[in-house]
Amino acid sequence: MFFFFVGGLEQQARRVLKSGAGRCVACGSRADLVDYDKVLKVFFVPVWRWPGKAPLMHCGNCNLFFPPSASLPPPPPRMKAEPHVLRCGSCDRAVDPEFSFCPFCGAAL
């Protein structure tokens, strides 16, 4: 007798408390402060939901949930860029001016 469990636990944003409250720690795009639910799914169907304990930041670009910036250490200071170097607004890498999209992350320049 075999038993296979196809399911998992995930977080889903329930409501946005403050739109554009910060930046994503992974991709650097805008992140919202949200109330969230933890959701148990079985065969990709939500079976049970319960609310999360404290609000989290949620990035809509990479779907990452992370704690608000008050509980995170401050980011390292950015180096001053040369004025003639084009940088991607998403990943902050130097890009040739002839590109319309970043070759590293695909964001529009």
UniProtKB/TrEMBL annotation:
Database matches in Pfam families: Zn_ribbon_15 (PF17032)
Span of the signal peptide: none
Residue ranges of domain Zinc-ribbon in the record: 23-106
Name this polypeptide is given: Zinc-ribbon 15 domain-containing protein
Species: Eucalyptus globulus
